[in-house]
Amino acid sequence: MKRIMLPLILLLLGALTSAQEFATSVKSSEVVPGMYMLEGADGFGGGNIALLVGDEHVLLIDDGIPPVGPSVLETAADLAGRSIDFVVNTHVHGDHVGSNATIAETGAIVVAHDNIRARLLDQPDEAGGPAGLPVLTFADAVTFHVNGHEAFVFHVPAAHTDGDAVIHFRDVDVIHTGDLHFNYLFPFIDLDNGGSVAGYIAGQQRILGMANDDTIIIPGHGPLASKSDLQTALDMLVDAVARVKQLVDQGMTQEQVLAENPLASYHEQWNWGFITTESMTHTLYRSLTAE
After folding, report:
1. Among 1, 36, 116, 283, which is least packed, fewest CB within 10 Å?
2. For residue 19, what is the domain's CATH number?
3. Quick check: helix, strand or coil at residue 87?
4. Which class for 251: exposed (0-12), middle (13-18), buried (19 or more C-beta within 10 A)?
5. Quick check: is 241 in a domain?
6. pTM summary value
7. How many of the other CB atoms lie within 10 Å of CB of 10?
């Protein structure tokens, strides 16, 4: 089983500007009444976190890198007046599940796709140690009925990874995409952990089919998004694939494709420290030429 999970956090940090550091605290912004998005307040805190509070249960979607775990707990207690009951992992990467153990040790139940538990059994440090392993898993979908809300959690196969989950809060029309959406950033498609470009595109198409103009989208990374933002990301990726495929079909090598710089027109808006224009091109080339 191939893995790049823990090094991913280090690569993310190294790829950011020299002034950027790991966060130790989170800040919150209310998305709809009773639901908040949490993100690093003083540096890179990992992927975007969703927090649903209420009188019945407190539900967390992802939990960031290990240093922000205590702040996530404190923020949840401040906003909910109680501890977290459930945490749902959107995928296996340590910038999204790194605080699992910290959260679980307070009594929260970790929920994830079957493939996430399988991978974390092999490398539990990604979840902060064995205490962070999911104890409740699902194959296709599971629905939470909490605080008057319906949170539909469904698996998207072979997309960002092989264990991706998307969460649709149906009654308030908020979708947490996990890393199926990087808002105006080139996406990371983890080919070594079961992801695929075709599956990523299919996953985005599925999310778009569930959304309307009023849907609020919490992306894995980047600011809050809309259906239009996700459509723009999908259009970019489909076109990027087509551009690289045209060169592959001409028999060009990877070095020749990179030299052609087929994604140059996307560089200014989509390039970022971790997934650069060059690395995005490399991923697409690798995917298109895989046997």
Report:
1. 1
2. 3.60.15.10
3. strand
4. exposed
5. no
6. 0.94
7. 11
Q: What is the per-residue pLDDT for 46?
A: 97
Domain presence at residue 92:
yes
What pLDDT is stored for residue 147 in this prediction?
93
**Strands (E) located in the chain:** 26-32, 35-40, 49-52, 59-61, 86-88, 109-113, 136-138, 141-146, 149-156, 164-169, 174-176, 216-218
Number of domains in the chain: 1
Tokens matching residue 9: 């956090």
What SS3 class is residue 214? coil
Tokens of residue 68, six digits: 């922000």
Structure confidence at residue 20 (pLDDT): 56
The per-residue pLDDT for range 170-223, each reduced to its tens digit, is 999 999 999 999 999 999 999 999 999 999 999 999 999 999 999 999 999 999
Best CA proximity match to 221, nearest among 32, 93, 112? 93
pLDDT of residue 1: 36
Domain assignment of residue 40, given as a range: 5-233
Sign (positive or negative) of CA dihedral 31, 36, 37, 43:
positive
Distance CA 150, CA 194 (A): 29
Tokens encoding 158: 């072979």
- pLDDT tops 60 at residue 19: no
User: Is residue 181 domain-resident?
Assistant: yes
